[in-house]
Amino acid sequence: MPTPPLAIRLHPADGVVIARTDILAGTPIPGENVTALARIPPGHKIATRAHAEGEPVRRYGQIIGVATRPIAPGEHVHSHNLGMGDHAKDYAFCSEAKPTDYVATPATFQGIVRPDGRVATRNYIGVLTTVNCSATVAQYVADAFRRNPFTGHDPLADFPNVDGVVALTHKTGCGMNDGEPLRLLRRTLAGYARHPNFAAIIVLGLGCEVNQIPGLMEEGKLEGRPRVRALTIQATGGTPKTVAKGVEFVREVLAEANAQGVRTSVPASHLCVALQCGGSDGYSGISANPALGAASDLVVRHGGTVILSETPETYGAEHLLTRRAVSEAVGRKLVDLMDWWEEYTRRNGGELDDNPSPGNKAGGLTTILEKSLGAMAKAGTTNLVEVYRYAEPVTAKGFVFMDTPGYDPVAATGQVAGGANIVCFTTGRGSVYGCKPAPSIKLATNTPMFRRMEDDMDINCGTVIDGDESVAECGQRIFDHILRVASGERTKSEQWGFGAEEFAPWVQGATM
Amino acid sequence: MPTPPLAIRLHPADGVVIARTDILAGTPIPGENVTALARIPPGHKIATRAHAEGEPVRRYGQIIGVATRPIAPGEHVHSHNLGMGDHAKDYAFCSEAKPTDYVATPATFQGIVRPDGRVATRNYIGVLTTVNCSATVAQYVADAFRRNPFTGHDPLADFPNVDGVVALTHKTGCGMNDGEPLRLLRRTLAGYARHPNFAAIIVLGLGCEVNQIPGLMEEGKLEGRPRVRALTIQATGGTPKTVAKGVEFVREVLAEANAQGVRTSVPASHLCVALQCGGSDGYSGISANPALGAASDLVVRHGGTVILSETPETYGAEHLLTRRAVSEAVGRKLVDLMDWWEEYTRRNGGELDDNPSPGNKAGGLTTILEKSLGAMAKAGTTNLVEVYRYAEPVTAKGFVFMDTPGYDPVAATGQVAGGANIVCFTTGRGSVYGCKPAPSIKLATNTPMFRRMEDDMDINCGTVIDGDESVAECGQRIFDHILRVASGERTKSEQWGFGAEEFAPWVQGATM
Ligand SMILES: [Ca+2]
Ligand SMILES: [Ca+2]
Ligand SMILES: [Ca+2]
Ligand SMILES: [Ca+2]
Ligand SMILES: [Ca+2]
């Protein structure tokens, strides 16, 4: 039985350490030569030396803010004495890019190979909607193929390789600006329509919405694609006729979808992993995120792709990524995103540095910069090879960045639209997130939460905190789990059936 | 059999008439002394006299825009020759306010009287969510009480006065500004939680979201209310435990909810009618909207309330409402809203005058001003007694205005949050809208669409176009229908089960 430390030091240069457990006032911190001056909740920071007012405070060896008043050794460091200051930025483009250490014989998983050569991890039939006005009708089409929990009657019983029929509905599509907000919605819908995890798709509209089907089909390059059926309620003549047409189409494509859904051995280079965190706590940046980072490095070394996102949560730490960019052009795309976000949030009366949620703050994260550094750890250490707009098709192999908000469902929806076929979601406070048609693996940052929400958590990374496992060992365990889930093993959220409600395209611009 | 006119003149001063049917080039227009110079689609405008470039064009006797090039008699008038100009505004506050002609013996309906004296038209149990992260769990609670369509097993069979258990989920609640965007979401959720059509409510959160339950309960004055149960997934320990707790609460309140759901005769003053239009066409402003206006006048004369909304669709015609305001203060609230919208849309890169959707334009509406005048007709002719913010509790009796976007689900969600217990929704292109817990009556503007979508339409106002019925007769028919629906008669959208997907709180500010 390992003896876990009282506090965790993340870097030799740090002026703070992180409480692993509730530390009472007067408790000496072994190895740090300080005594806690106040009660320090788990995940929160303790000063290990004095800081003058205005002096930078470091964690991960990086500046997470400045002391807003003098801080004594042993003091609790949080919102009352730590704030954002001007943090020097040196982009130093490409200065730390290095050759990727590819694995000689890549791992494999049991994937579903589509006619165009792309590889799926699941095999769904989807009902997408152009507008909220067709959402209920879309549900009714999907409902016709739901297994009955009482009788056990399963309309898909003869199609064991089909994972289900899912309606992905939303609240927008009309009363909206027909410029970028509409293009962004269409990129998202088209990304789902083309997602390899869908064997076939219905695109269902009302008829008079701003997001007209012909424009969506053209902008999304969906015209003439097989197994895409467009329908509007108005042209079809109302609810029951449209439901009947939708159900008829699904019945037509089920046999072929089932035949396509046979799994074969494919290289891990077909993995496209969306990296997410939500409900972070002070452990996120110590356990689950660095461990997922180790797994990300394995995915990339096996030839696959990992997508880091949540731009506002990377804000302030982007100069660490520009150094790892493969070219200045790629690095500048990231810097441009940050400029766009500054302007966007200012225009909307917000500010980028007040993003930690009440949950984050209660968990011990004080500044967005501190949260950014912890969040970025998910992406590991390989080169940044490309930067994408929200929901843009991800074609590069390696570590890429996609612009998304930090809000979990909106962020992951962009990544899945980009083609992610696995989501890895770290959480400290606990999340029950799922995102059909991609499986979502949930990684707990701490053992108490893992135990409390074991019905919803897939992997416990609290082992790193407990002293049971190193970050590298936990990363290998995550990688192995990714391969099993990509091969068909169902995640907790899939077992419960999560993943339709959570479809949440990014809404930009005014609702009119 | 009445002979319908070829074109409809709305006002003696108008320089255009409206094609009732497809008019071919060379067809003389009886009574107008002009001949169509081009094909005029139904609902579109024909010039009945020459207009010089820059000259105002009138419809309803009101300026709907200016000629952007010279228009000859008989020409098709649309986007190619009609644009927005500067339209003179004279608010003339209260100048046309007049005493309301109340009905001596108000009509009655069979309503459900709550312990606090408020009257419901339906009797639901609701599951509301603070954040998207609890949406699926909310669905599972509601799902436990769904009637099984195959076995006929109905978990609510012993509770015939309960209309159902409905989960109303959304895509926001975190990654958001904690200022006005959060207050607005909380007003909406609290309005639903307090809605008389709910016998009991669960408020379900994840736990770490920006929209924390304690803040919602306090701002929404929900603390200590009976039959409101707050739950978070994190505190309850994950999905199955939280579903079980939710189901347990519903089972606890079902008997009392059923007992409360007995209907008794109540005066029509308890009607609170939300006025909506969506998928408008050139007939909206000729048939369904004026007919609904006649019904609105009856509701007000019987002591009830009607709520006009869709602020951007009223933009440009607000000076007609300021004249009917009961006080300058009420009128100025409306003007202030318009100023706010100008600033809001500018900030979001939009403009208020480009709102007609592709469907509107295809139906013959050229400018937002023209659409505004047609939309306002729904509110009838009585005094404007109050102006409310989005989702604010509506307590006044009479004709009131509530600030909402024009987009149907977002607009009606605000009105229902304000306490509307009936929605009257006019549509020209066809809509399948429903909005639990309030019934939604759908009024078709034209007979062909009514026939094509009869499964979804409740009332045909195309009779006015066809020459079968006057606007006043159609208004009386609508009013009688409202009383029956308020008494429990189910609308088309209720028969199909619409109304959960369509819950769409107004999202303001940036998603972070
Ligand atoms: Ca435009
Ligand atoms: Ca700032
Ligand atoms: Ca996130
Ligand atoms: Ca703030
Ligand atoms: Ca509307």
UniProtKB/TrEMBL annotation, chains A, B:
Recorded GO MF terms: lyase activity
Gene Ontology biological process terms from the UniProt entry: D-galacturonate catabolic process
Keyword annotations of the record: Lyase
Entry-linked InterPro entries: GD_AH_C, GD_AH_second, SAF, SAF_UxaA/GarD, UxaA_altronate/galactarate_dh
Record domain SAF: where: 14-83
Pfam families noted in UniProt: GD_AH_C (PF20629), GD_AH_second (PF04295), SAF (PF08666)
Claim: Transport is one of the keywords in the record: no
Family membership noted in the UniProt record: Belongs to the UxaA family.
Family matches, as PANTHER family: ALTRONATE DEHYDRATASE, ALTRONATE/GALACTARATE DEHYDRATASE
Entry protein name: Altronate dehydratase family protein
Origin organism lineage: Bacteria, Pseudomonadati, Pseudomonadota, Alphaproteobacteria, Acetobacterales
